[in-house]
């Protein structure tokens, strides 16, 4: 018989990996369009990254069990966008 609590997995951290990334940028940097990544579930959490451009960003790992991604964009110039996969980092429940 399976004991649910004993086998439950707890999400401890969230890992992001960028498969592709292309967001509008210019001389002003990440100004018109950008992706903000916060280390928590609200925009008052620490911001881990502000991303734009055409280079694939480094992987991002949360310090806790949530990450918030907020994409800011204006109404002109659309670039390719992004594909991101995430992985939950688990530890066995106690
Ligand atoms: Ca734009």
UniProtKB/TrEMBL annotation:
Keyword Disulfide bond included in the entry's annotation: yes
Domain (CUB): residue spans on this chain: 1-89
Residues in the signal sequence: none
PROSITE patterns with a match to the protein in the record: CUB
Pfam families, per database record: CUB (PF00431)
Residue ranges of coiled coil: none
UniProt KW Disulfide bond keyword: yes
Keyword vocabulary terms for this entry: Disulfide bond
UniProt-listed PANTHER family: C-TYPE LECTIN DOMAIN-CONTAINING PROTEIN, CUBILIN-LIKE PROTEIN
The protein, known as: CUB domain-containing protein
């Amino acid at each position: 018989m399976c004991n649910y609590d004993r086998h439950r997995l707890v999400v401890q951290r969230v890992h992001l990996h960028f498969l592709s990334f292309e967001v509008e940028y210019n001389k002003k940097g990440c100004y018109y369009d950008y992706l903000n990544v916060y280390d928590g579930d609200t925009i008052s959490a620490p911001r881990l990254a502000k991303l734009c451009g055409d280079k694939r960003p480094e992987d991002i790992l949360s310090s806790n069990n949530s990450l918030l991604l907020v994409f800011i964009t204006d109404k002109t110039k659309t670039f390719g966008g992004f594909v991101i996969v995430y992985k939950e980092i688990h530890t066995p429940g106690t």
